[in-house]
Amino acid sequence: KVDPDSVKAHRNLGDALGSARRYDEAIGHYRRAVQLDPGDGSTHYDFGSLLVEMDRLDAAIRERRAALTAGPEVVAARTHAATAPGSRGRGRGSAPPWGWGAPSSSR
User: Would the pLDDT of 26 be above 90?
Assistant: First the structure.
């Protein structure tokens, strides 16, 4: 049973259902997590990753931009982990192939 007010539970279910290619159900859980905490960068990032996997790039861009706004450190950490030496840099949670995703560290 899922706590209907748990952002983490809904995000984790979105991740698991997305991995199982149960996309409609995954989207429902990500949307609920975003409703509960619109400022959670991890949720926006994971939701964006699912949308990339589904080839829904316009929606994915919106979610990844929301992730940058909500928690640029989340995006930066995940992008660096995905592009680290020895990493395949692919799959859910990795940096998108078109290069945006992490904020610039130079100002």
Answer: yes
First to last CA, the chain: 46
Quick one: residue 91, left, alpha or beta (phi over 0 = left, psi -120 to 50 = alpha)? left
Distance CA 84, CA 12 (A): 24
Place of tokens 């949308």: 51
Decide if 33 contacts 11 (C-beta within 8 A): yes
Closest CA to 102 of 87, 84, 85, 80: 80
- Tokens 């990500």 correspond to what residue? 30
State the pLDDT at residue 24.
Answer: 96
In this predicted model, which residue has the larger pLDDT, 91 or 82? 82
Number of alpha carbons in the 13 Å side-chain half-sphere of residue 51:
20
What's the angle, vertex CA 44, arms to CA 40 and CA 50, rounded to 5? 145
Nearest Cα neighbor of 30 from 45, 19, 20, 21 is 45
